[in-house]
Design a protein that fits this description.
Rossmann fold, 35% helix, 198 residues, alpha/beta, single chain
Length: 198
């Protein structure tokens, strides 16, 4: 896939990527954004060909979508409820000339993900349990929301067609429906790659 010189430069390291972002967003990078080496491995699993349509739930500023779109021929969409993150991410996508990535502003419970062929999930509900790990205070957070979001995701994953690919980062195996089979794990089992088989 053709990458602009600028895209290659910003995707050369996590530190280089952070330079795309405002300073206050860069400070969130180490904890909240997927490391590039993880993103590239997950994206190549989720998007094996040009027909792949991948959704990133709780996409933040879109780092995973940008990396995935640059290293595969698939299409990457992120859903994020913080509007400022979506604005920043879409500016980065435009700056890098990435045609097969976009960020949508909204809550993932309002989006039917069953039309996607792949799902990426980096435990974006966790901040509802551990408030000090929250990205900011711009959205409502509660244990009730954690339970609501987790139940909705479980229902959506169960409704996906057989063959759906799923990549999870920092997520317990117990939170994945039994119809998904673990195919690979990497980075000390933090990244797990699954396929829906029934």
């Amino acid at each position: 896939m053709y990458l602009t010189k600028e895209a290659k430069e910003f995707l050369s390291s996590d530190e280089a990527f952070d330079k795309l972002l405002p300073i206050y967003i860069q400070s969130l990078s180490n904890i909240h954004w997927t490391p590039l080496n993880v993103a590239l491995m997950a994206a190549q699993f989720l998007a094996p060909d040009a027909n792949a349509k991948v959704i990133d739930i709780g996409a933040g500023i879109g780092k995973f979508c940008i990396a995935g779109a640059c290293c595969t021929k698939g299409t990457f969409t992120g859903i994020e409820q913080r509007k400022n993150f979506v604005t920043i991410g879409n500016k980065a996508i435009k700056k890098l000339g990435v045609a097969n990535a976009e960020l949508l502003h909204g809550n993932f419970t309002e989006l039917d993900i069953t039309s996607y062929t792949g799902v990426y999930f980096y435990n974006s509900f966790h901040e509802n349990l551990v408030f000090e790990d929250a990205l900011d205070n711009k959205v409502e957070m509660s244990t009730e929301l954690y339970e609501k979001y987790s139940a909705h995701l479980l229902n959506q994953l169960n409704a996906m067609p057989v063959g759906t690919r799923l990549a999870t980062f920092w997520l317990s195996v117990t939170e994945i429906p039994g119809c998904y089979k673990l195919k690979e794990s990497h980075f000390n089992n933090l990244l797990k790659l699954w396929v829906k088989e029934s």
